[in-house]
Design brief:
CATH class of one domain: Mainly Alpha
Helix content: 55-70%
CATH superfamily of one domain: DnaJ domain
Shape: elongated
CATH topology of one domain: Helix Hairpins
Distance between the termini: 65 Å
Strand content: under 5%
Largest sheet: none
Structural class: mainly alpha
Amino acid sequence: MTRSKYQEITEARKILELPEKATMETIKSNYRRLLSKWHPDKCTEDPECCQKMTQTIIAAYETIMDYCNNYQYCFAEDTVKRHRSPGQWWMETYGNDPLWTSGESSE
């Protein structure tokens, strides 16, 4: 039975101890931390187990990076607006409307 791309990425994400949403910084940080822990030169476990885990971590990282590097970003206005902070939404929606401010101009 073949795994779907989603299942493959989810398994890799779990190996790298990543949440469902992660920044590139988090991905790389977790990868380096786990590789440092399991690298055969530093690992205190069974050498064969350490080597297997190192290979598993590297494969998981390659899977995640392949997904990230081939992800198609959308720069359409409606998509970008979905990623605004609440403060940005508020300012774009209400701005300096006197109803919501003291009526004094910040200029």
